[in-house]
Structure formats: C-alpha cells, structure tokens
Design brief:
Layout lengths: L5 H65 L14 H15 L11 E5 H12 L10 E3 L2 E6 L4 E5 L8 E10 L2 E9 L20 E10 L2 E8 L15 E5 L4 H15 L21
Antiparallel strand pairs: 1-4, 2-3, 3-4, 5-6, 5-9, 6-7, 7-8
Length: 286
Amino acid sequence: MSEATPAKKISNRSISRRKYKLLPAFTAVILVFSVIGLISTISFLVSATKSLIRNDKEKAMFEREIYPVMMFDPINFNSYAQLDEVTLLQMCMWSALINNRGKYSYDEFMLLTVPSSDIDVEAKKLFGENVTLVHQTFYDNDILYQYTPTSSTYSIPMAYQSMQYTPDIQKIQRDGNFVYLTVDYIPPSTLWDTDLAGDRISFTPEKSRIYVLKNVDGEYIITAVCESLEDLGSSQSSYPEESFDEFESSEDEFSESSESQGSEVSDSSDISSESSNESSSETSEE
C-alpha cells in the first residue's frame, strides 16, 4: 500500500481544519432553533392553559345561568310565553333563592319570606325585560307556596327534595349574539354510582338538550330549549357554522361545576323541587 504524498496530507489537514471551523457555527444554529422551539412550546402551553381556564369559567357561568330552568325539566320551547305561568313563576322563584340564599329570613312558622319584586328581577335576568309574572298562590306536590298580596311576599316552606338534574355542558357554539349550549342532564346520584366515601364515580346523562341564549347588552337571557337546532324554526338565529369550545365529560369538570353551584344554592344539595306543567291545574289563588 503506497504512502500518502505530502500534498495529500496537507489537503486532508486543510479539510479537517475547515470542518472544525464550521462546527461552532453549526452548533450555534442548532442552539438557536432549540431555543426557538422551547419558547414556542412554552408559549403554546401557557396559551392552552389560559384557554382551558377561560373555558372552564365560561362553562360554569352558563351552567349556573340555566340551572334554575333546567331543574324543572321544562318542555321544549321557542319562547318563555310557551311555558305555563306557574312553571315560569317557579323557575324565577328558585333563581331568586339560589342567587340570594343568605338574604331571606324565616317567619315564626319556619317559612322563608321572599319578596315578589326579587322574583321579578330574576325573571328579567332569565328571560328578558318583556317577561311579566302572574303572582299567585300555588301548590307543588301538595306543598303550598303562599302569596300575600298586601305585603307582596311569598311564604316558601323548607321542603328539601332531591334535585332532579344537574347540567353538564358538552359544547358551546356561537352565532352572532346567540349562544347554543349542548347540555347533558345528569340525574341525582344513587348508591350504585358512588364510592365508599360517598363521592360520585358515574356521570351517565339521561338525555341531552340544546339551550339557546342571547347576549343582550352584555347579559345572557334564555330564549329557547330544544332537542335539535332544526326545531327552532325562524324565531332564532340560523344554525351556527362553527363550534368554538367543546368539553369532554369528566369527573373533574363535573366536580368543579357542582362546587360552583353548590356554594350558591345552600349547605344542602337538596334545595330544589320537582315541577310539571300540570301544576297550573292545581293552582289556587288566595
């Protein structure tokens, strides 16, 4: 095997020196791209975390908004005018109780005294400025809700019953001033879907409905409840073209929303009553 000539040795040394000269530049380029990638990843994670927190807050806000209506399992409607006057009154009454739990006092008969003006305020928050309630005495499941015209107050008995449903929003869609909430109806927990500590482990919804809300001067009012958007007809906005926020059903999200609602309702999770649209036939006026 022939030995390398001096010229070849010099040429190899030159190539090696050029390689070593390029190595720092190449390393610097790799470091720059690594830093850019790290910054981009951190920025994405921060943005995603903020978006998740914002979505959770919005989800809890809408669940609290629709809860006083959902707890009575209303019929599908395109306008609050399609609800009977007693059902409408009950929804607004329980909205007042939920949002002003510590405000009201008990009389000597342990009945909660609630001004009808507070219920009127909640009616406008739920359904808009045009709603008008017909204040009256009524029965619900043989429980008397007494209205006193002279003082414009209701005497509400402390009837603790298990709430029928809890809302779990799965999807939020927007179209202009309208918001479309796809809501799962979560039934009350039973012995079979709780662990030994009493914590709920199963969240199977019984059904799903779409709640349509409209933004009016920065506040949301409920305009419709339906099984599908095709049921709305021409009275509502057109079908939303894009879905903005979707939520996967999970135990953590349900727990967070339940805690948010529970702090406003009462120390007991049983401050709710069942109602049906047939209750208007049992209404008696004082």
